[in-house]
Amino acid sequence: MMEFAVMIMAVSVAVLVVYLVMTLKKVQTSLDTANQTLGEARDAIHSWKGDVQGLVVSVKDLTNQVNRQIDAVDPLMASVRDMGEAIHEVTSSAKEVTESWMGKLRSQAQKATVATKGSWMDWVEAGVKAYHVVRSAAKVLRTSPQAVDALQQEVRKDIHEIERDVIKKDRLSGHGGAVTLG
After folding, report:
1. 177: number of Cβ within 10 Å
2. Are 165 and 125 in contact (CB under 8 A)?
């Protein structure tokens, strides 16, 4: 029984060793595959590393070119900004001159309107009155030649009234010149 037990142990150890050998072979195969994969990964990383380094160098070169171009454009932008400020100053000055000039023109136009309005209207009014006097005289002369004396007195009266109105309006407007019509 002891022999039998030793034999069972020997068979058990042999089966265990066979299992262990098979497991170790599978582990060995897995390790070989892992080593192979790691080698491929290492090769890929080395090739990518070269590509990444080339990309980094290209990005640095591109950044340097952009910086040089920006440095070249900066004086141009400063000139454009200065020119914009100068144009703004010129237009502001032109606007101020125009506003001042327009104010003076308005003031002169108002003065001229005030100065001429009274005298112009006076002359129009005097002309209208004179027209009515002449028309009345022509009418009377056509209808009755005997009323010439009465007409002359009426005309003198109307002329005197016109002269008074013109002199009165001239004094009010500050002109002060005397006007005589006849």
Report:
1. 9
2. yes
Task: For 52-73, give one letter per residue: b (16+ CB within 10 A) or e.
Answer: eeeeeeeeeeeeeeeeeeeeee
Sign of the dihedral defined by the CA atoms of residues 125, 128, 134, 135, in that order: negative
Number of alpha carbons in the 13 Å side-chain half-sphere of residue 75: 4
SS3 of residue 19 by DSSP:
helix
For 83, counting Cβ atoms within 10 Å of its Cβ (0-12 exposed, 13-18 middle, 19+ buried), the class is exposed
User: Using 50, 70 and 90 to split pLDDT, how confident is the model at 178?
Assistant: very low
- CA–CA dist 30, 36 (Å, integer): 10
Question: What Å distances lie between residue 34 and 31, 47, 141, CA to CA?
Answer: 5, 20, 143
- pTM value is 0.34
Q: What is the pLDDT of residues 111-158, one digit of tens each?
A: 655 555 556 666 677 777 777 766 666 665 566 555 556 666 666 677
pLDDT at residue number 60: 92
